[in-house]
Amino acid sequence: MPSLEVRGLRHSWVRDSRTRIPAPGRDASRVLDDVSFEVREGEVFGLLGPNGCGKSTALRVLLGLLEPDAVELRWNGVAVAPGGRALRSCMGVVFQAPSLDGRLTVRENLALSAALQQVDRSKVAARIDDALELAQLRERAGDLVSKLSGGMKRRLELARALLHEPSLLLMDEPTTGLDELSFQRTWQRLDELRSRRAVSVLLTTHRADEAARCDRVAVLDQGKIVALGTPAELAQSVSGDVLTLEAHDTDAVAAQIRAEFGLEARVVEGKLVLERERGHELIPRLVEALPRGSIASLSMHRPTLADVFVKLTGRSLGRGGEPS
Amino acid sequence: MSVLGQELATIGVLVRRDLVRFARERSRVIGALLQPLIFWLVIGSGMSSTFRLPGQSQVGYLEYFFPGVIVMVVLFTAIFTTMSVIEDRHSGFLQAVLVAPGSRVSVVLGKCLGSSTVALVQGGMFLLLAPFAGFHFGQMQWLPLCAGLCFTCLSLCALGFAVAWWLDSTGGYHVVMSLVLLPLWILSGAMFPAPAGSAFALIARVNPMSYAVAAVRRGLYGAVLPAGMLAADHSVWSEVLVLISFALASTLLAVRVCFRKR
What distance in Å separates the CA atoms of residue A226 and residue B5, rounded to the nearest whole number? Predict the structure, then answer.
């Protein structure tokens, strides 16, 4: 049985036009177009897409912070309203932007959240201690949150979201702004948590490496789901290796590769992208064939979800998904 | 936990938060007291030589002005504390509260009651200066005084909440609140009495702020209220009833606005 089922989610900015500017090159009002997916019990489900693709909007609709044009939600098989009490009572949320009270201490923020989430009074002290441990902020418990570093606040956000042991965790770009070490630690903590008890996770991300850690991923582009599956299934849509080539005259090099090698060379954000089985064998042939000095750099890697996104949409995940 | 328990917990935690933040910001406490104090002393002293209440030779301006300044303390504090709704939205804290199990009604009540408590504490602190204005704690009528102040605080905080929810900038919020509430305060009889039969007296009859000033004035004087003190001739209970209605209407407006998703 799916834990959370989302069917036919549609949302447009019409009623929010006062504060929102639609991304260029797309329907000015439609932000989410018939988005459907399910988060199964105990899995980590990722919504992958560039900034502005509508993934955070989808989360805000589920949380009841935005009014959708249409959506059907089921929580453990029972129809629920977006952001309804049934849903709010069993979920924890990590927002993209900080949502802590900077003028309260770390412990006060946790206590406030425990009260808002109606944690049993007899368990509050122990849960706060656990959260401080999880956030590695035991020594800073009495400090004002405004004095913490960005990474510390992020850790505290995650610990706070887990304080009431939610069965559904919603995370909007949970590792945004974290360095590599903090990113790894956050996922380590999430994995530890999942090994201790069943929690379903729905997260949004624009990072391919983060999406690769999910059990299943929906690729979202311009408000529509363009692919859905496990990271391995999605990666299979890109054949062989991916070669990325930076050239001084990209169009001329692309034309030459098409003519001489019969390969489809796509230009993505000024770089040439080639897909090829046994890519390492192609590299020396390319270097030989192309005029001396025309290649600025040439690299090869196994396909990632970033390559899947490029293949599906012709745009890169990195810079807000603008057309190449 | 029951639904009622959830709602009470949400209200309780938001009230507590406002009090903790208030206690922590000494500069705000001092500022909110010092400004009206200076205002009272400067305006009060300046006007005292020219002010004559019709038919009352013993009432000095510092004494006449004092109840109005208490309402001003409450008014300023309500404006400042409910402004945090905008700051909470910008800092992201508000959305964390909205996705918690408690309903939006409780969020409104919690914030309004928290802000009202802070405003009451500030008003209460200024009230301690009453003997310097010529009032005696022993002769005060505490019921109309407390009821008047409580419902005034709740009204202003709920109104502030509604405006803060509606607006996005603290600057805009200040302008709107000052444009609406300061003229209402000035025309409430706080600074000068309304001549009978004048347009001012007519405005005072429909101005909720004049009922707030009247309730405080009546409470401070108790049984020895001099004639001509009130902007309009109401009974104590009609004043309290008007303030209760104003508080109820403002709270309903705040709840209505809070359900607007943005």
Answer: 44
For residue B262, the chain A residue with the least C-alpha distance is: A66
Task: Name the DSSP class of A67.
Answer: -
What residues of B are in contact with residue A100 (Cβ under 8 Å)?
91-93, 96
Binary contact (A100, B96; C-beta < 8 A): yes
Asked whether residue A20 is domain-assigned, the answer is no
Minimum distance, in Å, between the CA of residue A265 and any CA atom of chain B: 44
Residue pLDDT tens, chain A, 324 long: 558 999 999 998 754 444 455 544 455 577 898 999 999 999 999 999 988 888 999 999 999 998 888 999 999 899 999 988 889 988 999 998 889 999 999 999 999 999 999 898 899 999 999 999 988 899 999 999 999 988 889 889 999 999 998 999 999 998 877 778 888 888 888 888 888 888 999 999 999 889 999 999 999 998 899 999 999 888 888 878 888 888 888 888 888 888 888 888 888 878 888 888 888 888 888 888 888 888 888 888 888 888 888 888 877 776 443 333
Closest CA to A2 of A223, A215, A236, A227: A215
The reply to whether B93 touches chain A by the CB within 8 Å rule is yes
Q: Which of A212, A230, A248 is the last residue before a domain boundary?
A: A230
Decide: helix, strand or coil at residue A27.
Answer: coil
Identify which of B12, B17, B101 has the shortest CB distance to residue A85: B101
Q: Which of A85, A97, A108 has its CB closest to that of B92?
A: A97
Separation between Cα atoms, residue A269 and residue A129, nearest integer Å: 48
Domain that holds residue B226: 3-258
